[in-house]
Amino acid sequence: MSDDIYREIILDHYRNPRNKGKLPGADISTHDSNPLCGDEIDIHMKIQEGKIMDVKFEGRGCAISQASASMLTEMVINKPLTSVKDIDKTDILENIGLTNLGPARVKCALLALKVMKLGMVNYLASNDPVSAKILEDDTRSL
Amino acid sequence: MSRQQNQNLNVALIREDFPILKRVLRGNRRLVYLDNAATTQKPLSVIDAISNYYKNYNSNIHRGVHQLAEEATIEYESTREKVRKFINARSRDEIVFTRNTTEAINLIAYSWGSRNIGRNDCILITEFEHHSNIVPWQMLAQEKNCKLEYVGMDEGGHFNLAEYQEMINRNKVKLVSVSQMSNVLGTIVPMNRIIKLAHEKGIPVLVDAAQSVPHMAVDVQEMDCEFLAFSAHKMLGPTGVGVLYVKREILMAMRPFLGGGDMIKEVDKYETSYNELPYKFEAGTPNIADVVGFGASIDYLNRIGMPAVRTHEINLVRYAMERMMNIGGITIYGPLQPTARGGVIAFNLGDIHPHDLATIMDDRGIAIRSGHHCAQVLMRRLQVSATSRVSFYIYNNKEEIDLFVQALKDARRLFKI
Q: Is omega for the bond preceding B286 within 30 degrees of 0, making it cis?
């Protein structure tokens, strides 16, 4: 029942998104959209010695896509950039408390993670193109 | 089943003809189908006509001399005659079967547009066109280096006639291509006036009738349009069949769109003479079964009568809009008078994203559309990224609208608006 989907926590992050906005001087800035829904997410990150010092997102779309972006920023701030690669679909769905979303809406929930992983891949590619390529394939399949 | 052609539909009786309306969805919910502008459901007579073709006279058409080929050809061609009558074309030669409205418009862009529109000419469309009446013209404009201009709408969501007049006077317009009824706003445009003004300048007009022919009486001779396109699946018929109407003298001068079987008279090693109209534009084995099914859908609509269909939809739109307006935070797009629009209502509710709203509706068995409705140019004009949309047809009733309105109230409560 979708009434369970729109629980307090999702609505809270939708209405009061954390870490939303621009990030001047960001080291990583990536954009992607979901053509089906028109959801759009930009992720900006500042990296220092491999650590995510600051992260912001911009975007528009449904409550699920925007709330998962907001929650994802909270998950990764002050963590090593490489920790992003270990976050998977289950982590996101459990974190936002929606483990039985239909296939069309799962894409909404995972958009922010996809954007963040692509950003990380592009950033790492300059140092380590081989593992970046593997990560990229992994991300595209999200 | 006998139905009088009066203005009141016997919706309860009509519903009996649609097997899918008995479907129970997950959560033990009864289907409330309010996505008719996307595609309509099919009555049993249409489903039976298709299966009867495959069971009893499946065969290729036009060339075979055996009995099955004869029967299939007669049925296929009888749909062409039904279409001719339905839109009141002069001749069956003017009716070309395509895959859908999109293919029909592309056919005109390639076969007619590429020969009649050149550098610095202008193609005129509107801001509320479906992508199928935008993208083919963009592609042609890029190829020919010609202009593509958009007529706007006024604040009430009506076609801006003054701006249109000004634009056809200012530009070297070679084609006007306009949707008779917007698939988002529901706006019905003053097509007779648009065509008359274009003809005064010698400009031909294409009518995108995908949303109009299924919902109101359309008469191509009265409108006097040069081209008209629509799809069977939006009027009780199967997917995969579209209609392109073209005035005979224009169609005769047009070169074929696709080459191949059935569109030829004689094929030599290096040259071919083309078949007569309309076969010149129907290369290859067509979608015989679905054209046959389409014939049954036209029969069904004829039994009801298009004026009754239109009246029913106006009543539903009035009923729905009155109730929707009472819900706090709702925005309805397009004309406010039910008679100025088709059976389509696009709206937004507070800050609820249309996809979230559609999910809430879906859990109540209510199928609505959410998104940009293949009209991103219009979405930008309305300054929204998406809208929700309900659209009605002959089998919808007021009880279904009540369920929809109740679901809107539930959504408001969930989102604390």
A: no
